[in-house]
Design brief:
This protein has about 230 residues and is of the alpha/beta class. The protein has 2 domains: about 120 residues, Rossmann fold (3-Layer(aba) Sandwich); about 70 residues, Orthogonal Bundle (Arc Repressor Mutant, subunit A), CATH 1.10.10.10. It is about 50% helix and about 20% strand. It has a 6-stranded mixed β-sheet with strand order 3-2-1-4-5-6, with helices on both faces. A 3-stranded antiparallel β-sheet has the order 7-9-8. The longest helix has 26 residues. It is elongated, with a radius of gyration of 20 Å.
Length: about 230
């Protein structure tokens, strides 16, 4: 299966990028960049395309960079028949954090260049979502839809699950950690009312789940209409 290499790159030329591109499997190339660097990256793509003889596309980051990177990588994983790998060789420090965060959540092999050597970064080779029950993921996505702080009553309406079940998924038990124990949600009390909100990590996971759900739903709809 052809490998899709996703390279996070800044606008500045980088020897590390050229080195890493040629040393990693490459069936097609996707360049991810800041929108402000788009013109420079387009010019670099015009050089890379004939040099490597592969299809090159560009995906600019929009809005929150980590959330945008998660959505881009989730879509590429769902659309690709082969493996998707991440290349941070041409990224500056900030963009490398963005790319690594998204790749880690999605369980994608990730590489960079260090001291002239190609280095594979320590990323678990499975999406973090696969270690969390479907019911807990549904709670995360519901919290993403609801906005800021939500009551158990709000979540019950969104998930169609009872308050006791929701409390179990949030607080866990002696044997099973809940979303709060995992650091994915925050919980606070206002009088007799319990309110829940996503942490940054919980929000990132919810976005990856939502992105994959949208793509899979669209695929099922397309098959049904064909």
């Amino acid at each position: 299966m052809p490998v899709v290499q996703v390279a996070f790159i800044s606008g500045r030329p980088s020897e590390a990028l050229v080195s890493s591109l040629s040393r990693l499997p490459l069936g097609s190339l996707v360049l991810v960049c800041r929108r402000g660097d788009l013109a420079l990256v387009k010019a670099r793509a015009d050089v890379i395309r004939p040099l490597l003889g592969v299809d090159v596309s560009i995906e600019p980051l929009e809005g929150d960079p980590i959330e945008s990177a998660i959505e881009i990588l989730s879509r590429l994983v769902s659309e690709s028949e082969g493996e998707v790998i991440v290349n941070l060789g041409g990224a500056d420090a900030e963009l490398a954090v963005v790319g690594l965060s998204a790749a880690y959540l999605l369980g994608l092999r990730t590489y960079t260049i260090s001291g002239g050597r190609l280095l594979e970064l320590p990323v678990v080779r499975k999406p973090i979502l696969s270690f969390i029950s479907r019911e807990k993921v549904e709670v995360l996505v519901a919290l993403l839809r609801s906005g800021d702080w939500s009551t158990l009553e709000d979540l019950s309406g969104l998930t169609r699950r009872g308050r006791a079940v929701l409390s179990y998924h949030i607080h866990g038990s002696e044997r099973t950690p809940g979303l709060a124990d995992m650091g994915l949600v925050e919980v606070r009390r206002k009088g007799k009312v319990t309110e829940v909100s996503l942490t940054p990590t919980g929000r990132a996971l919810a976005i990856s789940a939502r992105s994959l759900y949208r793509i899979n739903s669209s695929r099922r709809a397309s098959r049904g209409s064909s």
